[in-house]
Specification:
Layout lengths: L10 E3 L11 E6 L6 E6 L6 E5 L14 H7 L7 E8 L8 E2 L5 E4 L4 E4 L11 E2 L1 H4 L1
Parallel strand pairs: 1-8
Antiparallel strand pairs: 1-2, 2-3, 3-4, 4-5, 5-6, 5-7, 6-9, 7-8
């Protein structure tokens, strides 16, 4: 699915995602008809994309605690207005897809500012299988 990114709201990362220091502006587009899978595409280089999912359909008990520093960086007082997204890694088959539960993307729905956070002190996996949970 391709969409014209000129019509989509721009998401600004306040800190770049690891490994991509020059990419801070992205657009979020739906990949599948069910609305479960999204592409987070770099505005300056559209081929650079991360597949992301909302955690609820796959990990209904996932409730990361957003620390005060992250709330301050996003300039948000109430974490209820935040959208949490999980970065997905795809293997050779769709059944091999995993989600990074340790480092979610936290997005303020109003300002569209985001940051990827590493949940300090957590033993959550970097590669949690999606198929086993959603299957």
């Amino acid at each position: 699915m391709t969409e014209d990114s000129g019509d989509l709201p721009i998401i600004e990362f306040l800190r770049p995602m690891p490994g991509f220091p020059d990419r801070r502006e992205f657009v979020l587009t739906r990949v599948d008809e069910a609305g479960l899978l999204y592409a987070l595409r770099a505005l300056a280089t559209p081929p650079l994309r991360f597949l992301v999912v909302a955690p609820a359909p796959f990990f209904p008990d996932y409730a990361p605690e957003v620390d005060d520093d992250t709330l301050a960086l996003l300039d948000v007082a109430d974490p209820d207005g935040l959208l949490v997204l999980l970065v997905v890694s795809v293997g050779e088959r769709a059944a091999d897809a995993t989600a990074n539960l340790l480092a979610p993307i936290v997005l303020d729905r109003v300002s569209r500012r985001a940051v990827q956070v590493v949940l300090a002190g957590s033993d959550l996996p970097i590669r949690a299988p999606l198929a086993a949970v959603a299957g």
